Every structure is written in C-alpha cells, then in structure tokens.
Amino acid sequence: MENQPSGRRAFIKKTGLLGIGIMVARFPVWGSSVFATGYPKHNIPAEKNIDPRWIAGLYQRATATTYKKSRNELRYIGMPVGGLHAGTVYVGGDGRLWLWQIYNETFEGAQEGIEPKIVNWNDGTTVRKIRPRDGSAYIEPAIADNKRILDQGFALKTTVAGKTIIKELNADHWDEVVFTGSYPVADVVYTSKDFPLEVRLKVYSPFIPLDAEKSALPATILRVQVLNNSTKALPVDLIGWMENGVNKLSGKPGSGSKTNTVSFGAASVDIVSGFTTTDANLSNASDHGSMCFTYHGNGGKANPALDPWPVETVDFNPLKTLEAKVDGDEKLVGGISVSQLLAPGKTMQADYSISRHFNNVNPKLKKLVKDAEQGYYYASRFKDARAVSDFIKTNFNELTNSTELWSNTWNSSTLPHWFLERTFLNIGTLATANTYRFASGRFWSWEGVGACAGTCTHVWQYAHAMARIFPSLERDLRERVDLGIGFDKDTGAIIFRGENETRPAIDGQAGTILRFYREHQMNRDNAFLKTNWAKIKLAVQFMLAQDKNGDGMTDTPMENTLDAVWEGEIAWIVGLCIAAASAAQAIATEVGDTGFAALCKAYVEKGRNNMERELFNGEYFIHRPDAVQGRKKLGSYNTCHIDQVYGQSWAFQVGLPRVLDEKKTRSALRALWKYNFTMDVGPYIKTHIGGRPYALSGEGGMVMNTNPHNEEAPFGEDVSWQLGYFHECMSGFEHQVAAHMMAEGMHEESLILTNRIHDRYHAAKRNPYNEIECSDHYARAMASYGTYLSACGFSYHGPKGIIGFGPKWNKDNFAAAFTAAEGWGSYRQKLQGAAQVHQLQLKYGTLRLNEIRLEKIAKLDPKRVKVNLMGKNINAVIAGKGAQLNIMLAQEITIQKDQTLEISIS
C-alpha cells in the first residue's frame, strides 16, 4: 500500500522524516491535525449492543441481494464484465455497459482510479481534498450516466391494441428494473405494469475457474430473454447496438475514418469496427484497435450505421448494408436486430457479444515493465476483435454453459446469499484495469487501478481468491517474478515490487513463502516444489536471517505494508514469519530435506514460545520497541493492531498446525472486537483525524489500530504521515480478520464484520463491486475469499490427494462450492437419522483423492464407513481423533466430471 505521491522514497531518504512542517506540505492528504499535541481518547464502545434478531438474520440463507430502480439503487452499480486483464467494462444497474476503461490510459499520477478526480471531504474538523488513490470514489462514487463513453444498448418494439411501443433496456423506460449480481453474472429484469412483455438480460464475460485462458477474453456476452405475459401472440422486434469505439479519444476531423463492416456467418452476424488512417500517431494511439459486435443465432439483420439516431427513430429491420464510414471524430453506431411473433407465455432469446482488441500499450507502462513492450497476452492469441468473436462463436456453448454452471454451483450453497456475494465478488478485480497479462504470459498489476506498481508482495499476499480460482496464474507469478525477476539469487531476498523496486519487504517475504506452499497445494503434483525448491529454500533462509538475536522473533527493520520501517519485535510480523517457517518446514519435509525441516521446526517452536511470552500483554499481542531506538520511530507498540495474529490466520488458510496458542489468539481477536470494531465509525474518525475515508459516519467497521489504554504518544515519538493508516477501515485487513475469526469459531463476529463491509458497499451508497483502498478495485480485498474458505472449513492438498471440509454452522445440512487443482464442484453433508452422509459432486474437470477429512456431526460414535463412486464401492477406513474423521481410501480414485462420490458414516 502506498498513499504518497511518486518520488516519496527519495524524499524520505533526504529528510529522515524529521521535517514535520515540510511533511505536512508534502502530504496534505493527512492534514495538519495528525501532528497535533496530545492524543485523542479511545472512544469505541466495548459493548456493541447489536440486536440479536438482526444477528440471527445474518445466518439465514435468504435470497440474493437485489437492487431496484424503485429504491434509487442503480446509478452507482458497476460490475466488471469485460474479461480478465483486459481493462474495465462495467455493466450498470439497468444493464447498459459503461466506463469502458479499455484504452490503455490507466497510469499512476495521471489516470488513477475508475474516475480520476479530486473531491472534497469534511473529516469532522476540516475539509480535505481526497485523491483517487485516497478514496475519492468512496466519497463521490462514479455515476454510470456520467461515464457512458460509448453508446451501447438494446430496445424492443411491439404492437399492443394497434399501438406501436418502443422500450429501451434503460431504467427510464420501465416502471421497475431489478438488478441481481452474483459475480460473474449480472441479471437484470425489466417490467412495467401496463406492458405485456417482461425482459431479462444476463451479462457476463466467460468465467471458468481453473481456465485462465478462456476466462481472459476481451469480450462481454449479453443474453436477452423476452417473455410474453399476455394472452395473445405479439410481434417482437429486438435490436442491439454498439458504437464504434476505435480511436474514440484520439480521432480528429479529417484525420481518418471510422468504419463498420457487416459480415454474415452460418448462424451469426458481425459488425466489425475499425479506424483507417495514414497518420502514424493515430495508428499507434492507445485507443487504436478494433471492436466486433456479434449476434449469435439465425435471422439477424444488421445495419452498420443506424441513422437517424437515437433508437426511437431507427428502422428495427434494417437493410443488409455491408459497410459504413464516417469522419474520424464522428459517431458511428451499428445495430443488429431479430424479429419473432411471440406466442402467449413463451420466451424468445437472443445472444449477443461485444469483443475488443486494443494492443497499443501505454508507453509509460513499457518503461515500467519490459514485458509490456510486446503487448498483451490476448493479442498474442487473437489478431483482432473479429478473431476474438470467432473464438466465442466456435466455443459459445462451452463458454456460456460453463460460466453459468459455475454461477449456479456457487449459488446453490446453503451459505447466506449476501455472504457468498461479498466473499467472492472481489475476484472481479482481475477483470479491471488493475491487472494485466502481457504477451509473454506474465501477470502484473497495480495495487489499485493505476496506483502503486509492481504486483506488490505485501499487498497480494492477503489476496486468496486468485490462487484458488486461477491457480496457474499464481504459480507463474511465483516462478516468473518472486523467484525470477524480483529474486536476489545471492541473498534470497524477494524484491517486493519486482523490477519496480530494489528492496524486500519482510511481510511480503514471509507471505510469499506461505504462498509457495499454497501454490504447491493447488497443484496436481510435486513439480512446482521440485523445480523451485533451491530458490524457495534460499528465500526462507533470508527470512530466518532477519532474526538477528536468534530468539525466533524477526527484529530487522525492514519495509512493511504500512509503508514504514518499524524497529523492534512486531507481533504481526513476528507471527507471520513463524507461520512462514512452519510452511517451509512442511515444504522441506515433502522434498526430503529433513535437516532444513528440523531447522524450521526449531525456529517455529522458539519463536512461538518467545512471542507468546514476550509480546502478549495478557489480552493481546503488541510491538516491543527496539532496545536502542526505543519509541523514537513510528510503531504500534502497546496498541491494538488489526494484524497482530495474522500469522495464525495464514496458517489456517493452508492447513498448517497451530503456530500460536489458541487461548491467547482468541483473546487477541476478542480484543480487536472490543477495541477496534464499531457499528458506527463516526465518533472515532471525528476525533482521530488523518485517515482516509473508507468508512464514514453511520457505517461500521474495524479500525486498523487503536489505543485502548489511552497512552500518550502511543505510536512513537516521531509522528509521520503513515500514522493516518491507523485511523482507517481498510476492507482487505478486515477480511483477513473475518477469515481468522471464522476459522477460530467466532463466526458471529466474523459475519457481523463481513456484513458491515457489505453494507458499506450497498448500491444505495456506492458501487458494490469496487472495494477501495489505495485506489479502486484494490487487490488486498481479495482476502474476502479466505472468509469463505474458513466458513467451509476447507482444506486441500492436491499432490497428496487430500480434501477436507468442516463447516462452521449448519453442519446437519450444508452445501458449498469448492475448487481443486484440476476440477471444481459442490460439496454436501447431511445428517440422516443416526448416519451422516457426505457427497462430492464434480461439475468440471477431475479430482484425484486418497483421503477425505471430515468432522463428526452425528451423536453416535462412527463405526462404519461406506464410500461409493457411481455405484462402485471403494474400500476405506476411518482414522482421526475426537471430532476429526479422516476417510482413508484403500486406493487412489479419480472423480470425473458429472460423477458423485458419496460417503456414509454410521
């Protein structure tokens, strides 16, 4: 995370953070009040006074979250629907596409965020100017109607009682529009009281977990369904249109021509959009490329230039004109229509897609990342937008069916709909201008859209979603960057921003070691470990060496995610390194390096014992100052810090043994709940000035760092700009705590915290699909998937063929989706009389198993187990202690797509 302007590092080096007056001028976002004498009193109530009935409601399955026109909830909605790593295309609350951040403009210091603007915010004492990287979109969210760069939409025409009626799929044309969006599929329904047709629009880009290729198409699919609710057959004409967006920003009068060309396939119609010019500047412009608007079906009629315009004046049954051309700065809109006499109670369906291809990478990005010089990965697969469309045509059934199969599998869980939505939707960050995949195949990202370069290790290590949904991307990132471009082969240091930095970050180093173990677990075999063990070992040795006094507690001052170099022994960093050493022990054991495994084990034991003895204050874990420096520099010291037991949180995510005492850890989490969580941050942020606006008055959340015992100068003597972080609610950190609370059995607190984030991003207030930290669609927020995994009690080790589940509630009747190395599907468990029945239904790919780890839910002690795969009995025995039931298969099995493995324990 970085809030500061570019050049901050050099500035800090020169000033040593001593010139407070200069610092205030340099970083006005924090405001002079940060440097006031005296520290405000802690004012978060220990008793939360939450209505038990409201809490009970959080556990209910309920229904999917809907946003309605009638409640004024549509204008901020922007779900990414443009494919992974291909810019940002949003679908809005009324189904129209908007934003179109596809022109390679996004860049730090110029085009940050989804709407680069500075807004004013009254923080309780002063009015401050908030930049995009500081949360301007949280204060004033982008409004869809203000960002419709390209004209796109649908309209239908019918005749009722002799009267011709035209309605656009636009909120203004209907009595009610209802948006339901469970990522990756948006579902919009349009109805009017006195109108006989009801319309449903589904919008998404192909999204298939484990298939990073087919999920990364620069394209959007739009499925329109029209239902005749009347008692008579009605003529229905449906038209879709798309503006030629090529050279939209750079086109000038007389500089070239926008062109639309129609072509007909066996069961499709295309309108291919381009721009012809002899001007090299325009052909090399970042918005030069191609687009393709396609109807997938028979009977489509196309017009490359709808004129006159708007749609109310358009012929819905255009002639088959094949080409249209306009001057470079003029608007060119093509349309494709279909017609049907629709019988009563029947539905007509029309499938469209919009593909795009803009491969002129921002020149600044080429200077920042050498891999960018050859363009984007999708352009190495497809020569233009027409080729993308052709691929969709050829694979249309697979792409749409698999996407909707995943959506249905995910949503068929017994977990609450709101919980499923909030824990998964942040994976949409991969389908925004925050992430790129270059022609070399390399994945690269900002921290938030256009802000803070280099796929930062100390941010991305919080983000669990991509590793579980697209594990091949994470493995490649580990090998290509963390053990490649960003790896110091002499020391084992992992540079925390690849080639965009020169230093390691201690939390990024430890977190990446844990990620090595996770990526190994999400692989089918040991190839990842065998190939990379020598470098992984060196990276671990570098981390272990940062414990200078040999007590198992890292004490080397080094960069961390709060953008400061803290002195002393810091609970969250010490614990994270202990967890990383535990992961290293597991890795070393698997590769047969018993000596190194023993070394790591000794580090874990010594570090754990010392951390629990020296850094636990009887209630929570603290930061012990350096013996020489004392509290001269910024730190968390005796305060209550959100990440204090983060290492144990990580350990749960990858199935490691406990790295911290359960009683002390739960005490620390209860302290965070008591001192840092509030149902209304208003009183706190009004008195504790300096944080960025990621939660406002009337909204709940967990504050980063609080001073519950009201010490003077609680964060050290040298007050620096990073202190502002402590007063914020940053959702990525909150999701990390929620995941940990869930894993520790504190599911009530976990649900409340997650729900408060969900409420902060309700569509009545801002975009539900854009969790903001340092700029929009912040990568750390993908920590939310960890809360889902914890709720399922999910564990997995692909090479060993082990999978496990231990849901935190609804144990008698539970269902949820899962992903593994080579397949995904649905897990179910149910209590049937005295027996408990568990099922693994595979929906996609394959799943290789040797062992299934379950929990006892029946009252009687289990004596018998029956394992059946599609009618074939599999020999198995029960192992484990207490409530743990490990089903050991006599021989390895592989579950295929559409097969079900059933386990009955009685």
UniProtKB/TrEMBL annotation:
Q: Which residues form the Glycosyl-hydrolase family 116 catalytic region domain?
A: 507-785
Which residue intervals define the domain Glycosyl-hydrolase family 116 N-terminal in the entry?
Answer: 78-392
Q: Which PROSITE patterns match?
A: TAT
Q: Which InterPro entries match?
A: 6-hairpin_glycosidase_sf, 6hp_glycosidase-like_sf, GH116_catalytic, GH116_N, Non-lysos_glucosylceramidase, TAT_signal
Recall the GO molecular function terms of this protein's record: beta-glucosidase activity
Q: Could you provide one GO biological process annotation from this protein's UniProt record? A: carbohydrate metabolic process
UniProt name for this protein: Uncharacterized protein, contains GBA2_N and DUF608 domains
